[in-house]
Design goal:
Distance between the termini: 18 Å
Largest sheet: 6 strands, parallel
CATH class: Alpha Beta
Number of domains: 1
Bound molecules: zinc ion
Helix content: 25-40%
Order of helices and strands: EHHEHHHEHEHEEHEHEH
CATH superfamily: Histone deacetylase domain
Low-confidence stretches: none
Structural class: alpha/beta
Mean pLDDT: 97
Strand content: 5-15%
Protein backbone atom coordinates (compact mmCIF):
# COMPACT_ATOMS: atom_id res chain seq x y z
CA UNK A 1 0.00 0.00 0.00
CA UNK A 2 1.27 3.47 -0.92
CA UNK A 3 0.93 5.77 2.07
CA UNK A 4 0.97 9.06 0.21
CA UNK A 5 -1.21 10.64 -2.41
CA UNK A 6 0.60 13.44 -4.23
CA UNK A 7 -1.89 15.63 -6.10
CA UNK A 8 -0.86 18.42 -8.46
CA UNK A 9 -3.66 20.97 -8.39
CA UNK A 10 -4.23 24.71 -8.44
CA UNK A 11 -7.29 26.48 -6.97
CA UNK A 12 -6.87 28.80 -9.96
CA UNK A 13 -8.31 26.14 -12.29
CA UNK A 14 -11.69 27.63 -11.36
CA UNK A 15 -10.82 30.82 -13.23
CA UNK A 16 -11.46 29.00 -16.51
CA UNK A 17 -15.05 30.19 -16.25
CA UNK A 18 -17.73 28.62 -18.42
CA UNK A 19 -21.46 29.28 -18.28
CA UNK A 20 -23.29 27.53 -15.40
CA UNK A 21 -25.16 25.19 -17.75
CA UNK A 22 -21.93 24.11 -19.47
CA UNK A 23 -21.07 20.52 -18.42
CA UNK A 24 -17.35 21.33 -18.11
CA UNK A 25 -17.57 23.89 -15.30
CA UNK A 26 -15.59 24.79 -12.15
CA UNK A 27 -17.92 22.75 -9.90
CA UNK A 28 -16.35 19.54 -11.24
CA UNK A 29 -13.08 20.21 -9.44
CA UNK A 30 -14.79 21.73 -6.42
CA UNK A 31 -16.55 18.42 -5.66
CA UNK A 32 -13.44 16.35 -6.40
CA UNK A 33 -11.16 18.41 -4.16
CA UNK A 34 -13.70 18.34 -1.35
CA UNK A 35 -13.76 14.52 -1.60
CA UNK A 36 -9.94 14.33 -1.56
CA UNK A 37 -9.95 16.09 1.79
CA UNK A 38 -12.30 13.54 3.40
CA UNK A 39 -11.74 10.10 4.95
CA UNK A 40 -8.52 8.19 4.50
CA UNK A 41 -7.64 10.11 1.33
CA UNK A 42 -7.75 13.29 3.40
CA UNK A 43 -5.11 11.83 5.72
CA UNK A 44 -2.62 11.00 2.97
CA UNK A 45 -3.23 13.65 0.31
CA UNK A 46 -0.42 16.13 -0.34
CA UNK A 47 -1.11 19.03 -2.68
CA UNK A 48 1.51 20.48 -5.02
CA UNK A 49 0.93 23.85 -6.74
CA UNK A 50 1.80 23.68 -10.42
CA UNK A 51 3.74 26.18 -12.52
CA UNK A 52 2.44 27.13 -15.96
CA UNK A 53 3.77 24.96 -18.80
CA UNK A 54 6.71 26.67 -20.53
CA UNK A 55 5.73 27.92 -24.00
CA UNK A 56 8.68 26.06 -25.57
CA UNK A 57 7.14 22.73 -24.45
CA UNK A 58 3.59 23.65 -25.43
CA UNK A 59 4.97 24.51 -28.88
CA UNK A 60 6.31 20.96 -29.15
CA UNK A 61 2.69 19.88 -29.51
CA UNK A 62 0.68 22.94 -30.62
CA UNK A 63 0.98 25.13 -33.69
CA UNK A 64 2.13 28.65 -32.73
CA UNK A 65 -0.53 30.28 -34.92
CA UNK A 66 -3.24 28.39 -33.03
CA UNK A 67 -1.72 29.46 -29.70
CA UNK A 68 -1.67 33.12 -30.79
CA UNK A 69 -5.27 32.89 -31.99
CA UNK A 70 -6.31 31.24 -28.71
CA UNK A 71 -4.57 33.91 -26.60
CA UNK A 72 -6.03 36.75 -28.65
CA UNK A 73 -9.56 35.32 -28.46
CA UNK A 74 -9.33 35.22 -24.65
CA UNK A 75 -7.86 38.70 -24.26
CA UNK A 76 -10.45 40.18 -26.62
CA UNK A 77 -13.25 38.78 -24.47
CA UNK A 78 -14.58 36.26 -26.99
CA UNK A 79 -16.88 33.62 -25.50
CA UNK A 80 -15.73 30.59 -27.51
CA UNK A 81 -13.06 29.40 -29.94
CA UNK A 82 -13.22 26.80 -32.75
CA UNK A 83 -16.87 25.95 -32.01
CA UNK A 84 -19.45 27.09 -29.47
CA UNK A 85 -18.88 24.17 -27.11
CA UNK A 86 -15.35 25.42 -26.39
CA UNK A 87 -16.29 28.27 -24.09
CA UNK A 88 -13.51 30.63 -23.02
CA UNK A 89 -13.11 33.62 -20.74
CA UNK A 90 -10.40 36.24 -20.30
CA UNK A 91 -8.28 33.87 -18.17
CA UNK A 92 -8.71 30.61 -20.10
CA UNK A 93 -5.42 30.84 -22.01
CA UNK A 94 -3.44 31.30 -18.81
CA UNK A 95 -5.32 28.55 -16.94
CA UNK A 96 -4.87 26.10 -19.83
CA UNK A 97 -1.10 26.62 -19.49
CA UNK A 98 -1.43 25.94 -15.76
CA UNK A 99 -3.32 22.67 -16.42
CA UNK A 100 -0.65 21.47 -18.87
CA UNK A 101 2.03 22.62 -16.40
CA UNK A 102 0.48 20.47 -13.68
CA UNK A 103 1.08 17.32 -15.72
CA UNK A 104 4.64 18.41 -16.56
CA UNK A 105 5.23 18.96 -12.83
CA UNK A 106 3.88 15.44 -12.19
CA UNK A 107 6.53 14.12 -14.60
CA UNK A 108 9.19 15.96 -12.60
CA UNK A 109 7.83 14.43 -9.37
CA UNK A 110 7.91 10.87 -10.71
CA UNK A 111 11.43 11.46 -12.02
CA UNK A 112 12.31 12.30 -8.41
CA UNK A 113 10.88 8.96 -7.26
CA UNK A 114 7.10 9.27 -6.81
CA UNK A 115 5.21 6.16 -7.93
CA UNK A 116 1.70 7.51 -8.43
CA UNK A 117 0.38 11.04 -8.90
CA UNK A 118 -3.09 12.42 -9.55
CA UNK A 119 -3.67 15.61 -11.54
CA UNK A 120 -7.25 16.90 -11.25
CA UNK A 121 -6.97 19.57 -13.93
CA UNK A 122 -9.23 21.63 -16.13
CA UNK A 123 -9.68 22.56 -18.88
CA UNK A 124 -9.35 18.96 -20.04
CA UNK A 125 -7.09 18.09 -22.96
CA UNK A 126 -7.44 14.87 -24.93
CA UNK A 127 -9.55 16.25 -27.81
CA UNK A 128 -7.27 19.27 -28.44
CA UNK A 129 -5.37 18.94 -31.72
CA UNK A 130 -2.11 20.70 -32.46
CA UNK A 131 -3.99 23.36 -34.46
CA UNK A 132 -7.46 23.51 -32.88
CA UNK A 133 -9.57 23.38 -29.73
CA UNK A 134 -12.23 20.68 -29.63
CA UNK A 135 -14.63 19.07 -27.14
CA UNK A 136 -14.00 21.55 -24.26
CA UNK A 137 -10.20 21.03 -24.70
CA UNK A 138 -7.69 23.76 -25.62
CA UNK A 139 -4.21 22.45 -24.84
CA UNK A 140 -3.51 18.73 -24.89
CA UNK A 141 -2.26 18.43 -21.31
CA UNK A 142 -1.29 14.76 -21.56
CA UNK A 143 0.35 15.02 -24.98
CA UNK A 144 2.44 18.01 -23.83
CA UNK A 145 3.60 16.14 -20.71
CA UNK A 146 4.24 12.89 -22.60
CA UNK A 147 6.35 14.78 -25.14
CA UNK A 148 8.24 16.47 -22.30
CA UNK A 149 8.81 13.11 -20.55
CA UNK A 150 9.93 11.53 -23.82
CA UNK A 151 12.28 14.33 -24.92
CA UNK A 152 13.71 15.52 -21.62
CA UNK A 153 14.24 12.10 -20.03
CA UNK A 154 14.28 9.75 -23.05
CA UNK A 155 11.41 7.70 -21.66
CA UNK A 156 9.05 5.39 -23.55
CA UNK A 157 5.54 6.29 -22.50
CA UNK A 158 2.23 4.50 -22.61
CA UNK A 159 -1.03 6.44 -22.44
CA UNK A 160 -4.21 4.60 -21.51
CA UNK A 161 -7.31 6.71 -22.18
CA UNK A 162 -10.45 5.36 -20.55
CA UNK A 163 -12.57 8.47 -21.04
CA UNK A 164 -15.80 7.41 -22.81
CA UNK A 165 -14.73 9.40 -25.87
CA UNK A 166 -11.81 8.83 -28.19
CA UNK A 167 -8.80 11.04 -27.51
CA UNK A 168 -8.34 12.11 -31.12
CA UNK A 169 -5.78 14.79 -30.18
CA UNK A 170 -3.43 12.44 -28.33
CA UNK A 171 -3.76 9.85 -31.10
CA UNK A 172 -2.92 12.28 -33.90
CA UNK A 173 -0.01 13.89 -32.07
CA UNK A 174 1.72 10.51 -31.58
CA UNK A 175 0.33 8.68 -34.63
CA UNK A 176 3.75 8.27 -36.26
CA UNK A 177 5.68 7.78 -33.01
CA UNK A 178 6.90 4.37 -31.81
CA UNK A 179 8.06 5.70 -28.42
CA UNK A 180 4.66 6.82 -27.16
CA UNK A 181 2.00 4.08 -27.25
CA UNK A 182 -1.57 5.40 -27.22
CA UNK A 183 -4.40 3.09 -26.14
CA UNK A 184 -8.00 4.27 -26.03
CA UNK A 185 -11.10 2.44 -24.88
CA UNK A 186 -14.27 4.30 -25.80
CA UNK A 187 -17.82 4.23 -27.07
CA UNK A 188 -18.39 3.10 -30.68
CA UNK A 189 -17.22 6.14 -32.69
CA UNK A 190 -19.98 5.68 -35.25
CA UNK A 191 -22.40 6.93 -32.60
CA UNK A 192 -20.12 9.01 -30.43
CA UNK A 193 -18.14 12.25 -30.39
CA UNK A 194 -15.65 12.92 -32.01
CA UNK A 195 -16.19 10.07 -34.50
CA UNK A 196 -12.61 8.76 -34.59
CA UNK A 197 -11.03 5.76 -32.86
CA UNK A 198 -12.00 2.84 -35.06
CA UNK A 199 -10.07 -0.38 -34.38
CA UNK A 200 -8.35 -0.11 -37.78
CA UNK A 201 -6.67 3.18 -36.74
CA UNK A 202 -3.36 1.65 -35.60
CA UNK A 203 -0.68 4.28 -36.29
CA UNK A 204 1.30 5.18 -39.37
CA UNK A 205 4.89 4.80 -40.60
CA UNK A 206 7.24 4.17 -37.67
CA UNK A 207 4.21 4.49 -35.39
CA UNK A 208 2.28 1.67 -37.03
CA UNK A 209 1.15 -0.74 -34.33
CA UNK A 210 1.70 1.85 -31.55
CA UNK A 211 -1.92 3.01 -31.42
CA UNK A 212 -4.59 0.67 -30.09
CA UNK A 213 -8.25 1.61 -30.28
CA UNK A 214 -10.84 -0.46 -28.47
CA UNK A 215 -14.32 0.76 -29.40
CA UNK A 216 -17.07 -0.74 -27.24
CA UNK A 217 -20.72 -1.12 -28.23
CA UNK A 218 -23.27 1.18 -26.59
CA UNK A 219 -24.66 -0.23 -23.31
CA UNK A 220 -21.57 -2.40 -22.75
CA UNK A 221 -21.14 -2.40 -18.96
CA UNK A 222 -18.40 -3.42 -16.55
CA UNK A 223 -17.70 -6.88 -17.95
CA UNK A 224 -16.74 -5.70 -21.43
CA UNK A 225 -14.88 -2.68 -20.03
CA UNK A 226 -12.79 -4.78 -17.63
CA UNK A 227 -12.28 -7.66 -20.09
CA UNK A 228 -10.73 -5.23 -22.58
CA UNK A 229 -8.03 -4.41 -20.02
CA UNK A 230 -7.25 -8.06 -19.36
CA UNK A 231 -7.54 -9.44 -22.86
CA UNK A 232 -6.43 -6.58 -25.10
CA UNK A 233 -4.43 -4.06 -23.08
CA UNK A 234 -2.43 -6.32 -20.75
CA UNK A 235 -0.59 -8.17 -23.57
CA UNK A 236 0.41 -4.78 -25.04
CA UNK A 237 1.71 -3.51 -21.67
CA UNK A 238 3.81 -6.67 -21.31
CA UNK A 239 5.18 -6.37 -24.83
CA UNK A 240 5.89 -2.60 -24.87
CA UNK A 241 7.22 -2.39 -21.28
CA UNK A 242 6.82 1.38 -20.87
CA UNK A 243 9.06 3.47 -18.62
CA UNK A 244 6.02 5.43 -17.52
CA UNK A 245 2.25 5.33 -17.83
CA UNK A 246 -0.23 8.20 -18.08
CA UNK A 247 -3.92 7.51 -17.57
CA UNK A 248 -6.36 9.80 -19.36
CA UNK A 249 -8.83 9.33 -16.53
CA UNK A 250 -12.24 10.40 -17.71
CA UNK A 251 -15.25 9.15 -15.79
CA UNK A 252 -18.00 9.89 -18.32
CA UNK A 253 -18.33 6.16 -19.11
CA UNK A 254 -20.20 5.89 -15.79
CA UNK A 255 -23.80 4.72 -16.12
CA UNK A 256 -25.14 7.90 -14.47
CA UNK A 257 -23.20 10.26 -16.74
CA UNK A 258 -25.29 11.63 -19.62
CA UNK A 259 -22.34 12.13 -21.96
CA UNK A 260 -22.06 8.47 -22.96
CA UNK A 261 -23.83 5.13 -22.84
CA UNK A 262 -21.16 2.69 -21.70
CA UNK A 263 -22.84 1.78 -18.42
CA UNK A 264 -19.66 1.39 -16.39
CA UNK A 265 -20.18 1.49 -12.61
CA UNK A 266 -17.88 2.74 -9.85
CA UNK A 267 -16.96 -0.92 -9.26
CA UNK A 268 -15.81 -1.09 -12.90
CA UNK A 269 -13.52 1.93 -12.43
CA UNK A 270 -12.17 0.34 -9.23
CA UNK A 271 -11.44 -2.91 -11.08
CA UNK A 272 -9.55 -1.36 -13.98
CA UNK A 273 -7.60 0.79 -11.51
CA UNK A 274 -6.62 -2.36 -9.62
CA UNK A 275 -5.46 -3.92 -12.87
CA UNK A 276 -3.30 -0.86 -13.64
CA UNK A 277 -1.93 -0.98 -10.09
CA UNK A 278 -0.94 -4.62 -10.58
CA UNK A 279 1.01 -3.63 -13.72
CA UNK A 280 2.69 -0.78 -11.88
CA UNK A 281 3.83 -3.19 -9.18
CA UNK A 282 4.87 -5.93 -11.60
CA UNK A 283 6.76 -3.74 -14.07
CA UNK A 284 7.78 -0.98 -11.66
CA UNK A 285 6.83 2.04 -13.77
CA UNK A 286 5.37 5.25 -12.34
CA UNK A 287 1.77 6.16 -13.12
CA UNK A 288 0.35 9.65 -13.57
CA UNK A 289 -3.44 9.88 -13.61
CA UNK A 290 -4.87 12.98 -15.31
CA UNK A 291 -8.53 13.96 -15.17
CA UNK A 292 -10.30 14.29 -18.52
CA UNK A 293 -14.14 14.06 -18.69
CA UNK A 294 -16.76 13.15 -16.10
CA UNK A 295 -19.73 15.47 -15.74
CA UNK A 296 -22.18 14.06 -13.21
CA UNK A 297 -21.33 16.08 -10.11
CA UNK A 298 -23.02 13.56 -7.82
CA UNK A 299 -21.01 10.58 -9.01
CA UNK A 300 -17.72 12.12 -10.19
CA UNK A 301 -16.11 12.47 -6.72
CA UNK A 302 -16.95 8.84 -5.89
CA UNK A 303 -15.47 7.63 -9.19
CA UNK A 304 -12.28 9.57 -8.46
CA UNK A 305 -12.13 8.25 -4.87
CA UNK A 306 -12.54 4.59 -5.84
CA UNK A 307 -9.96 5.03 -8.63
CA UNK A 308 -7.41 6.54 -6.24
CA UNK A 309 -8.03 4.00 -3.49
CA UNK A 310 -7.59 1.13 -5.91
CA UNK A 311 -4.41 2.68 -7.32
CA UNK A 312 -3.05 3.05 -3.78
CA UNK A 313 -4.33 -0.36 -2.59
CA UNK A 314 -6.50 1.15 0.14
CA UNK A 315 -9.55 -0.77 1.31
CA UNK A 316 -12.81 1.14 0.91
CA UNK A 317 -13.94 2.57 4.27
CA UNK A 318 -17.50 2.43 3.17
CA UNK A 319 -19.03 -0.42 1.15
CA UNK A 320 -21.18 2.22 -0.59
CA UNK A 321 -18.02 3.48 -2.28
CA UNK A 322 -17.90 0.41 -4.49
ZN1 LIG B 1 -15.37 12.22 -22.58
Amino acid sequence: MLKRLPVVYSPEFKYHRTSPQHPENPKRLEVIIQRLKEGILGQIVEFFEPDPAPLEWVKEVHDINYLLRFEEACLRGRSFICGKENEICYDTYEIAFLAAGAVIDAVELVEKGEKFIFCPVRPPGHHAESYTALGFCFLNNIAIAARYWQKKYGRRIMIIDWDAHHGNGIQNIFYEDDQVFYISIHENPRFSFPGTGLAEERGRGRGEGYTLNIPLPLDSGDVQFVDAFIEQIEPVVKEFKPDGLIIAAGFDAHQDDDMAYLNVTTAGFAEVSEIVRSWREEFDFPVISVLEGGYNLEILPTCVAVHLKAMLDIEAEDPEDF
